[in-house]
Task: structure prediction
Amino acid sequence: QVQLVESGGGLVQAGGSLRLSCAASGRIFSVNNMGWYRQAPGKQRELVAVIASGGLTNYADSVRGRFTISRDNAKNTQYLQMNSLKPEDTAVYYCNADVRSVPRGYEYTYWGQGTQVTVSS
Result:
């Protein structure tokens, strides 16, 4: 089994910064895409940023230029640096990762438990 553990959420004032981490552990042979999603109250979960195993990234328009996704492949860990935070960034942030547990095995998507980010105005 594979577990994703997130950390780094909290309360911050508008204009501030936070850094989220998400560490994958368990039976891991390889990790392909990793990503961050968020869900605000009453809204659907939405993509924030993704990063491929080779480092290619993509961002939602609402966060491009303010957020940076990165990863440490040796540690199976991804990060989300969030700068210039706005009240509308308030949400529960979830990480996910596409993991293969054995060579030539299936790739499954695992999710973290979520971490609350609250930005006050």
